[in-house]
Amino acid sequence: MKNLLYICLGTVLLTGASCKKSFLDVQSPSSVDQDFVFSSPSETFKVLAGGYEIWRGGNNGLFYDLDVVGSDAETHPEGYDAQTRHIPEGLYASEISINYASSVDGWANLYKVVTRANIIMDAIAQKEDYKSAVTAGKPNDWTQLYGEAAVFRAFAYHNLIRYFGDVPYFSKAFATPAEADSAKLVSRDLIYEGEIENLKKVEPLMYRLGEGSITAERFSRTFAQALIGKIALFAGGYSTRRTDFDYGSVQFTQLGTEMWKSKYVRRTDYKKFYETAKTYLKACVDAPGSAYLIVTDGRGADYNNPFQRNFQYNMDLLVSPESLFEVGETQGQFSERPYAFGRPSGGGGSNAYPCKSYGQSRMHPAFYYGDYDPKDLRRDVTVTVTSNSGNASETMIDFAPGSREKGGLSNNKWDESRMTKPWTAAQRASGVNWTQMRMADVILMLAEAYAELGDESSAKAELKKVRTRAFAAADQTAKVDGYINPLSGDALKEAILQERKLEFAGEGLRRDDLIRTGKLPAKIKALRDLQKAMVADLRSKGSYTFANGNTIPDSIYVKKVNVSSLGMTKMLTTQCNVAETDATYPVRFPSWRGNCDQWTSIGTAASGNRSLAIKGLFRRIDHRSQEAADLVKDGYVKTAWGAAIVANEAQYTTSIFKGYSDAYVASGVPPRYLLPLSAETIAKSNGRISNGYGFAQQ
Predict the structure, then answer these.
(1) Using CA atoms, how far apart are residues 199 and 218, in angstroms rounded to an integer?
(2) 559: helix, coil or strand?
(3) Distance of alpha carbon 641 from alpha carbon 638, whole angstroms
(4) pTM over 0.85, yes/no
(5) Which of 42, 293, 385, 404 has minimal CB crowding within 10 Å?
(6) 3-state secondary structure of 200
(7) Could you tell me which residues come within 8 angstroms of residue 487 by beta carbon, excluding any fewer than 6 positions away?
(8) Strands (E), 277-421
């Protein structure tokens, strides 16, 4: 399936002696004959491919622990006290060891990528074919490889700053451990500006997607332009910064107060970065190579959901045309989709249907019920109310903390049951790629840049591109034009941010969106208050109705069915296109669930009743009513739904961002979302590096 093979041959690893005495614990150039290692583009790519292999898992742990679970849309499945990772995710209700494993590993891997990138760039820069291409301003294989290395370095520093704040900065390869140990923390402003300028130099000499055999499994000019835009938005956005660190002449606008010797600020000259973002995001949108926003679904009327079509490419083990970059995976090797970031399964570790899927990526009930318009085609693709049983059947999600079928509403963008060729031999080996940027992201970032710079008509035009595909043709006037046209000022900016929430839930972007726009404190409070109100009404009234008209009930009615008895030929449902009065509606709605049709012949299921009919998911059915009695008579079982949220109240209220109390919100305490530097990093820096933000030093 994958075109990019991650080859790490011993002769091109550039390992030599590992710099174990360096606080960075990264590798330096060795006595390997670099004339051979970089003798041709094909040999050089072998070194570059090692970078892609490191990247495949380099910051996966931190994405798992923080990015995909720590927002006002996304959360974790277990009880708060079950995992140490919930402490940094929830902004530190207590302290953790500064040697937290995921952060130590992420730090080391990202610097390995930086080091490899610098070695590659230094070597290629000496090539005459590279020099002549630069002089001519015409891309060739050498300039493409150089550009890929430059993107690696910029992307690595982007992630290091996201997780750690100000970090050591190396723009050249170092030859000895002593050079690494002489490092000190460098202002994120200098790193942002340095990497943006370097990317500006290299991107014109890279191939766009579709040129030079470059696919979205490699970095391209298309991606480089988008990355410039993304980094620029972060550079011009809010972040928590140390007050015991010298940021030079940079001036800031501050939100709230100071605490932990830190403050929540953004640069006063932030608009220059938004101008940069606008320029390069527009260049990407205007000339994206082979990438495009998927706006039609050619699979037929039973599907008719272009948003879901993007994720189906992933599950078909194909690179999506909407992707700018996907981390390549191969079936049989370790991969997280859908195991951690998709529809859960209660199956065993091997030879199950499907195998175990833990379901790390969960959604707040207030997000599912309260944020999505009932007609938004993204809702059921993004969030599932049922899981795979692991035994070729479907089971209801349980709001009790846990994993698999427990843990609350789950990410539905990836589902092993929906794969063309499901991998049932072992868990965590599906081969589904990790999409790290797609066109919808670029378009909405461009809309944000336009709005911040006052070009509201252009901002609306970009916003409309993404929102249009989220609604059926009949709903365009009311849900797209009627929604967007009146927007202006802060309302427009908020609408763009909200569209990103609806579009990218479960993809790990929302947490950073809230941080860099200065909205994190207010959104934490709003979510917590909303779910407290939801719990109170569920307890006292048996239901809660959100502002959009959606109602979450305390219980629902569920029946196991054999879809063939309803005239359906498939268990795996698509977009629900039948009326509520249709007999198949309780099985088809919500859309995008069921179970894999390839497994109907296996002998592990007890009967043919493998699918679930659900009634009362968005309205309360009074258990004393005639309707309830008729449902029970028809074989439906009253099943706890919102009542399970009430029974686990803390999980859905006070444990949300437990480290950032209402009092902190009221007094403007800076959000403490960063990670500590390890004891080894501090100890081996010869006094040049220390922890900030209230973290320990050892």
Answers:
(1) 16
(2) strand
(3) 9
(4) yes
(5) 42
(6) helix
(7) 456, 460, 495
(8) 323-327, 362-363, 383-384, 386-388, 394-396, 410-411
- Report d(CA 345, CA 570) in Å as an integer: 19
CA 475 to CA 533: how far, in whole Å? 30
- What is the Cα gyration radius of the chain? 25
Q: Taking a C-beta distance cutoff of 8 angstroms, is the pair 183, 170 a contact?
A: yes
Q: How far apart are CA 342 and CA 434, in angstroms?
A: 12
Kindly tell me the burial class for residue 349, based on how many C-beta atoms sit within 10 Å of its own C-beta (0-12, 13-18, 19 or more): exposed
CA distance 131 to 579: 65
- Residue 122, judged by CB atoms within 10 A of its CB (0-12, 13-18, 19+), counts as middle
Q: Which residues lie below 8 Å from residue 132, measured CB to CB, with a gap of 6+?
A: none
CA 336 to chain centre: 12
Inform me whether the pLDDT recorded for 551 exceeds 50.
yes
The angle formed by the CA atoms of residues 117, 119 and 124, to the nearest 5 degrees, is 95
The tens digit of pLDDT for each residue in 186-244 reads 999 999 999 999 999 999 999 999 999 999 999 999 999 999 999 999 999 999 999 99
Tokens of 260: 């932990």
Query: What does the alpha-carbon distance between residue 497 and residue 365 come to, in Å, rounded to a whole number?
Result: 19
3-state secondary structure of 345: strand
Q: Which amino acid is at 56?
A: R
DSSP lists the bridge partners of residue 239 as: 265
- Residue appearing with tokens 């301003």: 137
